[in-house]
Design brief:
Layout lengths: L11 E5 L2 H13 L33 H4 L8 E6 L4 H16 L3 E5 L7 H15 L2 E4 L5 H7 L6 E5 L4 H11 L15 H16 L7 E6 L10 E5 L3 H6 L5 E8 L11 H15 L1 E5 L6 H11 L2 E3 L5 H7 L2 E7 L4 H8 L6 E5 L14 H10 L5 E3 L4 H6 L1
Parallel strand pairs: 1-2, 1-4, 2-3, 4-5, 5-6, 6-7, 8-9, 8-11, 9-10, 11-12, 12-13
Helix pairs in contact: 1-3, 5-7, 9-10, 11-12
Length: about 400
C-alpha cells in the first residue's frame, strides 16, 4: 500500500543526506513494516540490550517510539533528500531514491545547497511537513541542516538511523552530556561559525534527549553498549538488503574498500597509498571500491600506482556486495563497512577483514581522539578478521 493511502496515524518524515542514510531508513521501514512492498516479508527485531537505556526483556521487541509508548504507528513514510553537491553522492542518492519508490515510499528531492538562498527556500517548503509529522528521522544529527530543521518540528518521536560510525560517537556524546561535534574535528576552541550556530545546536541536542513528551530511538548496526536513559536502541541487521538482493556470485581473490580518511585530514595521503599497494600485493586484491568522498586525483593515483581496478559504486557497498560479483575476501580500513558487511553478507562465504591504522600514518591535523576512535571501530567489529598494518619496509619498498 502506498504511504499516501495509508491511514490510522501520523506520517513519518525522514531527512537523508547520503546514500547510506537512505538505505538505513529503508531498513527501518522494513523493520517497522511501514509501506514495504518488496519481496522480503517485514518483521520486528529485538532491541540491542544497553546499559542506562531501555533494556530488551524476554519476548520484548523494539518498535517505533510511538508504538512502544502506546501511541500510533506512523501511517506512511516520506523521504526528503537534502541533496549534496558532489556528483558521486548525488548519483548514488538518485539510485537509492528509485529503490525507495519501488518499495512504496514517497521521495522528495530538495536542492538544499543550490545557492545562497536555497537553505531558506528549503526550510520554508519543509516547515509545514515538519509541523504535521508525528515521527521525524535523521541520518546525521551532527548536520547543521538537520539541527536547524529539528528546531521546527513538533514530532513526539525522533529516530536517528545510522550514518556510519558517527552514530557511535553521537550516542557517546549524549551519554557524556557533550555538545555534538564530529569525531574527526580537531579539539580546541570553537570557531566563529560554531559560536554563531551554538544556540541551534544546543536546541537540537535538547530535542534529541528523551523527555515526558518526546521519545528517541537509535536504529543501528553499530555496537552501542550504553545509551542515555530512555533512548531505545533497535538492531539493524540488514534484513531488507538480504531479502532484496543476492546471494552474490563470488570471485577469486580479494576486493579492497577505500576510505575518505585522507580527505578528512586524518591519514597522510602518501602513507595511505603505500599501505594500499602493500595490502593489495599481500592479499591478491584486484579491485578498489572507492568511497564516494574520495578525490578523483587520489583515485587516479591508486589506479596508476597500485594496478588496482578502481570501481565507483552506484549504490552503497552493502548492496553492491550483496548483488555481486564480489571477492571471497573484502579488505577494509576501519570504517562503517566492517560492521555492516558481515550483516549484509550473512550466510555467504565472504570473509571480511579489517586493517588497523598505524599511528604513524596520522597527520598532525588529526584530532587527538582519532587513534582511539579508529581502534574502537576495529576492536568492536563482529564477524571480521584482523589484519595488521603493513610493515614499514613493505610500505616504503612496496
Amino acid at each position: 500500500m502506498s504511504p499516501r493511502a495509508a491511514t490510522g496515524g501520523p506520517r513519518a518524515l525522514a531527512f537523508v543526506e547520503s546514500p547510506v542514510q537512505l538505505l538505513n531508513v529503508l531498513e527501518w521501514a522494513h523493520t517497522h513494516a511501514l509501506g514495504a512492498t518488496g519481496p522480503g516479508a517485514p518483521r520486528r527485531r529485538a532491541a540491542i540490550p544497553v546499559r542506562g537505556g531501555r533494556r530488551s526483556g524476554a519476548g520484548r521487541t523494539a518498535v517505533s517510539g510511538a508504538a512502544a509508548a502506546g501511541g500510533q504507528t506512523p501511517a506512511g513514510l516520506t523521504l526528503v533528500v537534502l541533496a549534496p553537491t558532489d556528483p558521486m553522492t548525488r548519483g548514488q542518492l538518485r539510485r537509492m531514491a528509485e529503490l525507495a519508490r519501488e518499495e512504496g515510499h514517497e521521495v522528495r528531492w530538495e536542492e538544499a545547497r543550490g545557492g545562497a538562498t536555497a537553505p531558506f527556500q528549503t526550510v520554508g517548503r519543509l516547515a509545514p511537513l515538519l509541523r504535521r509529522a508525528g515521527c521525524v528521522m535523521m541520518g546525521d544529527p551532527f548536520s547543521r541542516y538537520v539541527q536547524l530543521l529539528l528546531t521546527i518540528t513538533r514530532a513526539h518521536d525522533l529516530v536517528v538511523v545510522d550514518d556510519g560510525t558517527a552514530t557511535m560517537e553521537f550516542v557517546a556524546q549524549l551519554v557524556r552530556g557533550e555538545r555534538l561535534v564530529r569525531w574527526h574535528r580537531k579539539g580546541g576552541r570553537p570557531g566563529a561559525r560554531d559560536l554563531l550556530f551554538a544556540p541551534v545546536s544546543s536546541s537540537a541536542r535538547r530535542r534529541l534527549t528523551p523527555g515526558a513528551r518526546r521519545r528517541v530511538e537509535v536504529f543501528s548496526s553499530m555496537p552501542i553498549h550504553e545509551a542515555p536513559t530512555g533512548v531505545a536502541v533497535t538492531a539493524n541487521d540488514f534484513a531488507w538488503t538480504r531479502a532484496r538482493f543476492g546471494p552474490p556470485r563470488l570471485t577469486k581473490g580479494a576486493d579492497l574498500v577505500g576510505t575518505s580518511l585522507v580527505e578528512t585530514g586524518v591519514v597522510d595521503g602518501e602513507r595511505y597509498l603505500q599501505a594500499v599497494r602493500a595490502l593489495a600485493e599481500a592479499h591478491g586484491a584486484g579491485r578498489y571500491f572507492a568511497h564516494r568522498r574520495e578525490s578523483s586525483e587520489k583515485l587516479h593515483r591508486v589506479a596508476a600506482e597500485t594496478g588496482l581496478e578502481v570501481v565507483r559504486p552506484d549504490l552503497p557497498l552493502e548492496l553492491i556486495a550483496r548483488r555481486g560479483p564480489i571477492g571471497r575476501t573484502i579488505l577494509s580500513f576501519p570504517s562503517t563497512v566492517v560492521h555492516t558487511l558481515p550483516l549484509a553478507l550473512a550466510g555467504t562465504q565472504v570473509r571480511v577483514a579489517v586493517c588497523d591504522i598505524d599511528p604513524a600514518w596520522l597527520t598532525d591535523r588529526a584530532s587527538p581522539r582519532a587513534q582511539g576512535f579508529l581502534s574502537g571501530v576495529t576492536g568492536t567489529a563482529r564477524g571480521v578478521d584482523r589484519v595488521p598494518p603493513p610493515a614499514e619496509q613493505d610500505i616504503t619498498t612496496g
